[in-house]
Design goal:
With 242 residues, the protein is mainly beta. The chain is 14% helix and 44% strand. It is built from 2 helices and 15 strands. Strands 1, 3, 4, 6, 11, 12, 13 and 15 form an 8-stranded antiparallel sheet that branches. A 7-stranded antiparallel sheet has the order 2-5-14-7-8-9-10, with no helix packed on it. Helix 1 packs antiparallel against helix 2. The protein is globular, with a radius of gyration of 18 Å. It starts with a helix and ends with a strand.
Length: 242
């Protein structure tokens, strides 16, 4: 089945399930209608990897570095795994789609890694540079990086410690967790601030303002050297500009 068609069906059934759940709980019909409308207005795409061929990279993705493939997990669900622990940054980028002010989320499971664990979401990807919001429970932080591709250099833009609301062991429990980010780009005249926010399992963990223009680009997934990480249900949409 075509990935875009499958994604649309997945989002539809998600909304129907939420409708059924809401009917058994307190709340108004107007609140539910507003939520469903926002789901469809987002024009987002959900990649669940269930329809991809196993033991191969998905056709909708460009593998820049690393050993990425779709594999069944212990529950029999197909997930996207970066399985190489060798040195170097592992990147997988969505084909075709570009985003200026994206909202994105992905479920992740840390499998192994001695110096690094988990991974992150790439945004603003181009041949020259890209940006990363990455979580590393071994360091108990969520960081924002810029990566200069021609120079092969990574620049730390912001470091956000977990704080009291989160513990590193929470993300090393062998369970699935969800990283969500939202990027609001500054105007193209290089004035103002670009804002980057992130949460893990619904708990806010990063709020960072970057001076100047933040260019749009493609979206993707990122894993640091030494880490093996599984991903699932990667969602991305373009937010409206004020």
């Amino acid at each position: 089945m075509d990935t875009k068609i499958f994604s649309a069906i997945t989002i539809l059934f998600t909304c129907l399930a939420l409708c059924a759940k809401a009917s058994a709980e307190e709340g108004t019909d107007d609140d539910l209608d507003d939520f469903v409308d926002s789901m469809f207005d987002s024009d987002g795409v959900l990649y669940s990897f269930d329809d991809a061929r196993p033991y191969l990279p998905p056709e909708d993705w460009d593998i820049i570095d690393g050993s990425w493939s779709v594999r069944p997990d212990e529950a029999g669900n197909q997930v996207f795994i970066q399985g190489s622990s060798r040195s170097g940054y592992k990147t997988a980028i969505l084909k075709d789609h570009t985003f200026i002010s994206p909202e994105s989320s992905v479920k992740f499971k840390s499998i192994s890694g001695e110096s690094n664990r988990a991974g992150g979401i790439i945004f603003g990807y181009s041949e020259l540079t890209y940006y990363i919001v990455r979580v590393n429970p071994l360091e108990s932080n969520v960081n924002v990086y810029a990566y200069d591709q021609p120079m092969m250099q990574r620049l730390l833009l912001h470091e956000s410690p977990f704080g009291d609301s989160m513990d590193e062991n929470d993300l090393l429990d062998g369970e699935w967790h969800e990283l969500s980010i939202a990027v609001k780009s500054a105007s193209s005249d290089e004035s103002g601030q670009a804002q980057i926010v992130a949460s893990i399992d619904g708990v806010s963990c990063l709020d960072f303002e970057l001076s100047g223009y933040l260019p749009g680009g493609r979206m993707g997934l990122w894993v640091n050297y030494g880490a093996v990480t599984a991903f699932d249900d990667f969602f991305v949409c373009e937010t409206s500009q004020e």
